[in-house]
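Q: What does the assembled structure look like for these inputs?
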Amino acid sequence: MSAKRIMFVLRNGKTAGPSTDERIEVAMMAQAFDQEVHLAYLDDGVFTLAAGPDDLAALLAKIEESDISHIWVEQQSLAERGLADLVLPDLFAVLDRHQIIELMGQMHMVIPG
Amino acid sequence: MNKPLPALHIVNKSPFAASSLEQCLQRLAVGDSLLLIEDAVYAAITEEIWDGLRTQPNKPARILALSPDLCQRGLADKSLAEGIEQVDYAGFVELVTTHNPIHSW
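A:
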């Protein structure tokens, strides 16, 4: 069976419930089963990347352990929230909204979070 | 990577209570369809919400509202905003089979 392209869309802030962490756990599982996993940080989801260096380091360690390598952060979501200057690890690629839309269209599954 | 089918975007929150619909509309690709269910059907009777969208190049190929959810909210006899279609559960299933990916907002 060939790998499915699965995008987990993370649109909620850190305090909007457990869903972002849970989605990442599910994404890690999918990656462990050799699926092509994409994480997309949109809307308030970008706030989870600005929660502080400790949180970001913990997230990065988790992601690196899982080998997820497609991690996208929408530039407009950052800019709309005053986070345009946020410094992110190299693993996180900042993309334009149109690039995110194009990527979404190439997925086999899009899972909201 | 080929894209054999357009995406179906499903929104279930009222546009007056959450920004999901607005955020979805910002991220439509040409040819995608939009289905309004649950409290999102309130958007279907509100013409102003769609005014800006009609001139955009990425406007959805189809905008649909789930008729049982319109009925449950006493909106069955209301006229829908221009271009919005009603769809029943069977139509919902057909949409799911003719679109990919399915994106719930």
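Chain A touches chain B through 19 residues (CB under 8 Å).
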